[in-house]
């Protein structure tokens, strides 16, 4: 995408201004989105964005700028402006570019550059809508969405790295609204992956509609949730969002290097129940959060974060590794050329255990089964969180009694890790978007069902 002669000249120029490290991140992003409202198509949008991010590093100081132009003079102008206050004699010798071919581990066939498959996607969303509204006459409305994205990147840096990659993302979802005239409730279902629209052969539009409607109907008849400290069973799949938000971010060197994480000095310590094993894996085939290389051009990997309750690794990008002394984990990620990379999660999950879900439920005297988690807020540095329960049930005497609404879970990531007493067999992954200092990136969360012995539940009963 960028003339190698131009890239070579710009990197040489950056080093002549005394920078320790220079990098060009070239990106072309092609996106197609389709939105439906019940049985009508609301919007079909497509667009292409192109730009180049320029990163200069002086010691541990990062300077970053970007442009939509490819001309050599424009790129050097940005370098000059970035380096103005840090100019010094050259310290680093540039290495010649050595192009590195990336192995494609996530094949895609129905890609956006070949065919947007708009009619097929619309048919999927309308079938999901029809199924949801057929489930009950109180399903008043649905909203559907299908996003497909093709991201091409090319990276040059002063250490001689030259590589490129193409990523294909797809995600389809439906939200159903149930209303009885006085109250309204919602339910949703989505699927996604690092692949093309061939995902249609793996996902089921009718199941998407059924699940969205089922959840909306359950929530509509739910009772007020009791409050207080009690045991909670966290459902599998998207239940992993609590570990991702309240613990995962504390294991990124973005926080560790600043000592803004309670885990910054806990390497090798027991930070969780010995039943807990947690992983961040960018290599899982065609998963939403997977990558061939990170946004610094380094190969991704499987990273064991917690082993038998012990902290074993942090997630480190290039700068984080330099600041902390921990090795790079291929975790440098960014939303686009408009952002400098930072250490970020990929597919982050708690590994499977040996306990059946029924055994967890039956062990509860009075508590909550949070089968599906919603969004929430987290306090950076401490992992203090407040998460809503999207679908939950009150449990008494070891049996599910009734669905509850307006339930929230309040605790800290470090506290929850130590309160886990049972880890289930029913492991699942779920896709989402993660926002942080380098923008929003596709990430996967996951876990089997887990029993947390003691957590504060907020409710309005």
Automatic annotation (TrEMBL):
Residues annotated as transmembrane: none
Keyword annotations: Hydrolase, Metalloprotease, Protease
Cellular component per GO, a single term: cytosol
GO MF entry, a single one: metallopeptidase activity
Domain Metalloprotease TldD/E C-terminal: 227-459
GO biological process, alphabetically ordered: proteolysis
Transport recorded as keyword: no
Limits of the Metalloprotease TldD/E central domain: 118-220
Domain Metalloprotease TldD/E N-terminal: start-end pairs: 22-80
SUPFAM superfamilies in the record: Putative modulator of DNA gyrase, PmbA/TldD
Family: Belongs to the peptidase U62 family.
Protein name according to UniProt: TldD/PmbA family protein
Species of provenance: OM182 bacterium
